[in-house]
């Protein structure tokens, strides 16, 4: 009673303790240091290969997915021990305030066999035992549960693959947005300064009435429209560097500089038959493989229901020791077997079987639905990639024309045959064309990554995040150069196996 009162009084004294500002700041500093732990510093311009490698190696969301997979692996490892017998060691102390006295009577007459009660046990004694118990029903259920945990571990791996596909797609898009911002930054600022000067000249001409008011206002409106476009582009591209830095876990304040790769997108994948792509997606797609594992877990649940219908056989053996001096044998061993069955299981068996069967039907339906959806995604991703590739080529051609027009305009400006408005307009048009070219390029890379994700393909070194950054970068670069073939292996590498070039593999 005293212990219960102490426990109740302790619970009554618990009050909420909100986290204070100093504690938040201290923990924030520790979290930032933890996030930056082991991240190699950026020593120069970042290529697309290095950005991919840094994202795979240092991205915090990917680290979380890998930890989830590690938890699933540990759950599988611990579930294996549930199949072993239970070996229990126990020791105890017993005390009573009076002797354990016993009376005896004659079995025939019912008269007391002894005049006085006799003591059968000491007031204080210790007991200890070591017993081995094995429940065959628990063994069967534990075996099925371990098989289910093995499938859950595979599900965690497929979810990590899916998250990796999304990460690589985001890194590609952010990289090309950063490249466009880096290339257009100086040109945009020069054009804004030029437009501001042309606007000031137009306003001065209006004040001095050097031209008609309506022409002056139209001139100003065109300049202001160009300024609005230029400032909108500048604002749109301002966040690209921060997004890329976040994906590769780089300091957000770092002036990140990227290097554009020389390789261009290829249409080789579009030459493959849709049927071949469908077969590859069915074999390797992460979502579909996850549904297959869920179906296996549901089927295993039906086996657990059937196992519960069997009698429970319990085998035990143990060594015991008691210090009671009234015992003739203070140390002994005992073995036993016990079989039991819950008769109410017969009543619940039909309902449990229907529940398990409905779970299997649901898992099968989800698998079929996922397969049909993935087949549709293969067709859509292939179509989107073809359209994105065509749009990029068209945007590239338009940019080439606008850039040549801008160069001709610059030559005319040197001979004083072109107005500032025309020069600003030509610069703005060229900048917009270059921006649209980079946007089309980013969309094409995103479409390629989407098709790659639907087909379930990724660099073979994607799981080898323990490689040094330079080796991982080289391996990712080799895989990216051959990704348009989606699985066609590159030439045999001459480097060490740890740094071997990667192919796109499931």
TrEMBL record:
Q: Which InterPro entries match?
A: TolC-like (IPR051906)
Q: Which SUPFAM superfamilies match?
A: Outer membrane efflux proteins (OEP)
Which residues are in coiled coils?
A: none
Q: Give the record's keywords alphabetically.
A: Cell outer membrane, Membrane, Transmembrane, Transmembrane beta strand
Disordered: annotated segments: 483-506
GO cellular component, as recorded: cell outer membrane; efflux pump complex
* Main subcellular localisation: membrane
Where is this chain's protein located in or outside the cell? Cell outer membrane
Residue ranges with Low complexity bias:
495-506
Gene Ontology MF term list: efflux transmembrane transporter activity; porin activity
Protein name per its UniProtKB record: TolC family protein
